[in-house]
Amino acid sequence: MKVYPFKNVVAMSHMLLQPYVSEAQVLVDMTCGNGHDTAFLASLMKDDAVLYAFDIQDCAVARTKERLDSLGLSHKTVVYRQGSHDDLVGHIAEPIDIAVFNLGYLPSGDHGIHTKSETTIKAIKICLHKIAINGIIMIAAYPGTEAGAQEEKALRRFLQSVPQREFDVSLWQPINQIHCPPVLYIVQKRG
Ligand SMILES: C[S@@+](CC[C@H](N)C(=O)[O-])C[C@H]1O[C@@H](n2cnc3c(N)ncnc32)[C@H](O)[C@@H]1O
């Protein structure tokens, strides 16, 4: 049995998404970075599903593609796009089953290129319109830096205003970690 530690937002996100990924037809990694989330989604998705991998940085898109190739996942349908997720997500015509935002900066990259609350919230708003019934928007936020704290605060305020009749919105966060532990927001479209 694969064991997921209740330790960090990425492990938690993958654990919660696992039963949904194999059912999904359209999946989107909104910040593909080093490709860990994209590889997780690609490894479990159906062969006829399509996965979009977006990142604002060319080098992140290249690293993600390299990771998938090295893991033998090149037979999966992955559409790589460089650009801002709030511009790119609008071009997806089909309903989205799973959208994953792993916010912040690219580890071992330029830490000055950080997701921004305005574009993050704009992209989430588009996802809320496009998400399928029972579809999930998973958002990992990192309030440990000044930029991350500002983004997480704005994100929380926005998500608290999402209508309860249409979406279930919750969060998971470690509570015994020092400093400012990451937060995982889970949004599911109600049936
Ligand atoms: C924490 S990293 C993502 C980690 C990645 N999901 C992984 O599994 O390796 C955050 C990423 O968001 C990207 N990013 C920042 N602003 C963005 C935007 N507006 N649209 C798309 N990607 C963005 C950064 O370039 C960075 O690669």
From TrEMBL:
State a single Gene Ontology molecular function: methyltransferase activity
Any idea which UniProt keywords this protein has?
A: Methyltransferase, Transferase
What Gene Ontology terms for biological process does this UniProt record contain?
A: methylation
**Which Pfam families did the record assign?**
rRNA_methylase
Record-linked InterPro entries: MnmM_MeTrfase, SAM-dependent_MTases_sf
Q: What is this protein called?
A: Methyltransferase domain-containing protein
* Species this protein is from: Megasphaera stantonii
